[in-house]
Design goal:
The protein is an alpha+beta fold. It has 14 helices and 42 strands. GO terms for molecular function: hydrolase activity.
């Protein structure tokens, strides 16, 4: 904690909320002291020598002296393996159960007493001491997992484990959920524990609200995704390799995964990036397609304060000819910050306001937090108590924490009955006229002046009938909440696509919606972190995301705000937002020059709306993110793997945002092929670098030669923008029609 963080903590301690939060934190520690026995002495274990094997469909079981390894290659080429009898289920990540085993893949003896499974797309070799090696069909090694190690408490309890992996010396790491320091993950330690950043964060913020044990590893030998299906607290230590000069030996890259408990099991998918994400999408679920309006410009602020202020903001957009598709209401519209309520003094006629705005083409979106104020007479709390919905400690007592409404209880979203109950509560939001929801504070958060701001780890959870505690449930809590909300909205309005996005989540959250960057700082570092988060989430299978334009906390300069606005115009979720007291974020608040340039960015976003709609549907069909790193189509291009300051939007556009103060020209690295500057029409040939103008009025955007891009014409009708193919080549594109909501 730095000095500023310490000061904030001390100020919080002296306030009434700080006193209550301190009391809650002490109570949390007391609950864990009683509910979690000390680990005591531990016994280390490794698999030992191989003793035999049992072939099964798609693979089999390899037995060792002190463990066993189950391997299965499924239809499509994904590989699963699990130690100590761990199977692919139960899993919160898998969408529709486990795919069928590949009947052509068989377990067979290998050299030196080991075993192997050979399939069409991948070969898995198991050494006689338990190392697992993944190879391409041509025999090139993509990863080598060394024999794992477990530490088991002598007197019983969950075993900790560690798995160390070697990858090619040129490999680069991506993923692990939302990482502000990415998109390429440098050497370091990354924690796997969903965490409230506590006000604002920059590139050094870690962990953040969404952590996932999902890595995409890109090397000359090929690309592969690895997913350790374990929701416990853990750490991933990455170290990039180094190629030997001359006749020197290569030093391979390494990754070590350490978990505090839970199964040691993982999935590996091998292939080109597009194929890897396609298989990952089939395994964990196709991304939800947002309503058409949710691909337009959206505006939020913590502190609108009243219906009059909402009308003023919407009128400001309309009077200036600025497109606006939605307004988001934060916790200040709730009565006492209590979820599923309305402050009738500030918003006396919310349904009428929602109807008025909808006729003007603007939807209302509501915040929904998971914490329920523990107040007798409050309908949501009373119905939750009657349903047995709230988490309890090992002695059966309701566990409470301190959040915005005060002392709160927490629904157990890992219980199917609680998800059914919670989903029904969204009927109140629909009656108020809201068209969508955003889930916040769902790591979940319980305020504390110091230390971990979450629930006691000994809190009991249903875990869909298996039973367990918060050590296993914490990272999937928000995922289960998103499922409850999404399924509730589907039941309540079966003819409309739900609009839901969440601050926290886990692998598979794309089935229910998207996410946003959370409380990113209002700084140039925060701007760069915003792009990293969107790219990283897309590579983990969550394609719909975006930042708080301008940053959440602090006051951006006009230049910073404009550059953020221009970046967000090309990201899936385009939303301005700010903390209470951080100032207004409407484009006209930053002066006439910023207003005109922001107008141009909004106009381009509206023009590209059919393209975003097409990308949304293609993402559902193929798993490909809207926003992709430059190496997406050329993973063997090492220079592109190092580049994190530009991206491709779909297959057709390359966007090079300005991420530094005072820049009016910037270098842009091009993938192979011919590219046209959309502002000047000048053509450039890649691979290579070009220096392009980046005046305050725009950022460099290039179109791939041969692209056909669906756009909205001046009359509002669909048009096709065609860019000439390179000499001797052909071109084309896709258009996916959309029904709207």
């Amino acid at each position: 904690m730095d000095c500023r963080g310490l000061v904030r903590s001390l100020r919080g301690f002296t306030s009434l909320r700080g006193v209550r939060a301190t009391r809650s934190a002490l109570r949390r520690r007391w609950i864990d002291a009683r509910g979690l026995p000390a680990r005591g002495p531990e016994r280390a274990r490794v698999p030992g020598a191989v003793t035999g094997a049992e072939p099964l469909p798609g693979g089999g079981i390899v037995r060792f002296a002190r463990s066993e390894l189950r391997i299965r290659v499924v239809v499509g080429g994904a590989v699963f393996w699990g130690w100590d009898g761990a199977g692919p289920e139960p899993s919160y990540a898998l969408a529709d159960g486990v795919p069928a085993p590949d009947p052509r893949a068989e377990l067979e003896p290998d050299k030196d007493g080991g075993w192997r499974v050979v399939s069409e797309r991948v070969t898995v070799e198991v050494s006689r001491h338990g190392a697992v090696e993944v190879r391409t069909p041509g025999g090139v090694t993509l990863r080598r997992d060394l024999p794992p190690r477990w530490w088991e408490p002598v007197h019983g309890g969950p075993a900790r484990w560690a798995q160390r992996t070697e990858v090619p010396a040129d490999a680069r790491f991506f993923g692990l959920g939302g990482r502000a320091s990415g998109p390429r993950l440098r050497d370091g330690v990354y924690r796997l524990w969903n965490t409230d950043p506590g006000g604002s964060f920059g590139p050094d913020g870690d962990p953040l609200s969404i952590t996932m044990p999902v890595q995409l590893v890109v090397a000359d030998a090929g690309t592969h995704l690895v997913f350790h299906d374990n929701s416990w607290d853990g750490r991933v230590t990455l170290r990039e390799g180094e190629e030997g000069a001359g006749s020197g030996h290569d030093r391979p890259g390494s990754c070590e995964v350490r978990m505090d408990g839970g199964p040691l099991r993982c999935w590996v998918i091998v292939g080109k990036p597009a194929r890897v994400l396609s298989r990952w999408s089939r395994l964990t679920g196709a991304p939800a397609v947002p309503p058409s309006w949710a691909l337009g410009a959206q505006h939020a602020r913590w502190g609108f304060g009243s219906e009059a202020e909402v009308r003023r903001i919407v009128a400001g957009y309309q009077e200036r000819g600025l497109p606006l598709s939605a307004v988001h209401l934060d916790i200040d519209h709730l009565a006492g910050h209590r979820v599923f309520t309305v402050d009738r003094e500030r918003f006396p006629a919310l349904p009428e306001l929602a109807d008025e705005l909808r006729r003007a083409g603007v939807r209302l979106v509501s915040i929904v937090d998971p914490a329920v104020k523990a107040e007798r007479g409050y309908a949501v709390y009373e119905s939750g108590r009657a349903a047995g919905a709230f988490v309890r400690d090992g002695r059966g007592r309701e566990v409470r924490g301190e959040v915005w409404p005060g002392e709160c209880a927490y629904p157990d979203f890992t219980d199917p009955r609680v998800r059914q109950w919670w989903g029904g509560l969204y009927e109140e939001r629909l009656r108020q006229g809201f068209a969508g929801v955003w889930h916040d504070m769902n790591e979940p958060v319980s305020f504390a002046p110091f230390g971990d701001t979450t629930l006691p780890r000994s809190v009991r959870h249903d875990l869909d009938g298996r039973g367990g505690d918060h050590r296993e449930a914490h990272n999937v809590y928000a995922l289960a909440m998103a499922r409850a909300g999404y399924e509730g909205l589907r039941r309540l309005r079966p003819d409309e696509r739900p609009f839901l996005f969440s601050r926290s989540g886990w692998a598979g959250m794309q089935r229910y919606g998207g996410t946003w960057s959370g409380d990113v700082s209002s700084s140039w570092d925060g701007l760069r972190a915003s792009l990293s988060l969107v790219l990283g989430m897309g590579l983990c299978g969550v394609p719909y995301s975006g930042p708080d334009v301008g940053g959440f906390g602090g006051s951006p300069s006009p230049e910073l705000y404009l550059r953020w606005f221009q970046l967000a115009a090309y990201l899936p979720l385009f939303r301005t937002h700010a903390a209470i007291g951080a100032g207004r974020r409407e484009p006209w608040e930053f002066g006439p020059a910023v207003l005109e340039h922001a107008r141009a960015a909004l106009a381009e976003r509206e023009r590209l709306h059919p393209y975003f709609v097409t990308l949304a549907h293609l993402s559902r069909l193929t798993g490909a993110p809207y926003v992709r790193p430059l190496w997406w189509g050329s993973p063997d291009d090492r220079a592109l793997r190092e580049c994190g300051d530009a991206f491709v939007l779909g297959d057709a556009l390359l966007v090079a945002p300005v991420l530094e103060r005072g820049v009016d020209r910037r270098l842009v690295r091009l993938p192979r092929g011919r590219w046209f500057d959309t502002a000047t029409g000048q053509g450039y040939d890649g691979p290579g670098q070009v220096l392009l103008d980046a005046p305050l009025s725009r950022v460099p955007v290039l179109a791939r030669a041969g692209s056909v891009i669906p756009v909205r014409g001046a009359d509002g009708l669909l048009e096709l923008e065609v860019w000439a193919p390179a000499g001797g080549r052909r071109g084309g594109g896709l258009v996916v029609a959309d029904a709207g909501d």
